[in-house]
Specification:
Blueprint (H helix, E strand, L loop, with lengths): L2 H22 L21 E4 L2 E8 L2 E4 L3 E2 L6 E3 L27 E3 L6 E7 L7 E8 L5 E8 L4 E5 L10 E3 L2 E3 L6 E3 L18 E7 L2 E6 L1
Antiparallel strand pairs: 1-2, 2-3, 2-4, 5-6, 7-15, 8-9, 9-10, 10-14, 11-12, 12-13, 14-15
Length: 220
């Protein structure tokens, strides 16, 4: 090998080493979005991390955090209402005794975030004296399954995710049954059929509104 070829080979090796070193020093954030360091333990758990709201979901039988959605922190509305009052008598011969008014006290009030109205189904989708499970999406576009029960006088909505392992329950007579671990829940109250069964926590009640032939969920 000539001296010129040896010099070219050495130069190529130096460039390769510099490129490898540059890759090693790249920050981890260059390869993917940051996820919460906290372990995802139960479907539906929510955590705020680095300005995003992450929700625990079940994918391929594993509990993981979703991609997260940006959230804005609500600042409390501060309204100061000073009410200083001074009573001055125009008559110089009046009594000199005066009672000073107390210092104004600023009041701080914070307004809770209004629920989001989400169109979820049509009224004919839920017949009277029946329970149906309808799949849709929440206010953030994430999958949401809801068990609707229409009685003679009311419409009830429950989160259809079993509180044991997150499987979607199914109507079974006047009850809701989990196909994964056979937990049973009341279709109107969401309470478990047996307090000692798997998934002994009640199904979450959702606020529902029906108007003009449509069914809406009011979600926070």
């Amino acid at each position: 090998m000539s001296e010129q070829e040896s010099e070219k080979k050495s130069r190529r090796e130096s460039i390769r080493l510099l490129f490898t070193a540059a890759l090693v020093t790249l920050p981890i954030s260059a390869f993917g979005n940051a996820r919460p360091p906290k372990a995802c333990k139960k479907v539906g758990d929510v955590v705020i991390y680095k300005g995003k709201k992450f929700t625990c979901v079940k994918i391929n039988k594993k509990l993981v955090w979703d991609k997260g959605v940006p959230v804005k922190e609500a600042l409390p509305n501060k309204s100061a209402t000073p009410t200083p009052t001074q009573s001055a008598s125009p008559n110089p011969s009046s009594s000199t005794n005066s009672s000073p008014s107390p210092n104004p006290t600023p009041s701080i009030s914070s307004s809770p975030q209004a629920p989001v109205k989400v169109l979820f189904a049509k009224s004919p989708d839920v017949p009277r004296d029946n329970t149906v499970v309808i799949n849709g999406k929440d206010q953030y576009g994430r999958p949401l399954s809801v068990a609707f029960t229409r009685t003679q006088t009311s419409l009830i909505a429950l989160d259809a995710s079993c509180t044991h392992a997150g499987c979607i329950v199914r109507p079974q007579g006047k009850e809701l049954a989990c196909p994964c671990h056979f937990s049973i829940f009341d279709s109107e109250t969401g309470k478990p059929g047996n307090p000692f069964q798997q998934g002994a926590y009640p199904l979450s009640r959702l606020e529902v509104l029906e108007e003009s032939g449509s069914i809406y969920l009011l979600l926070n």
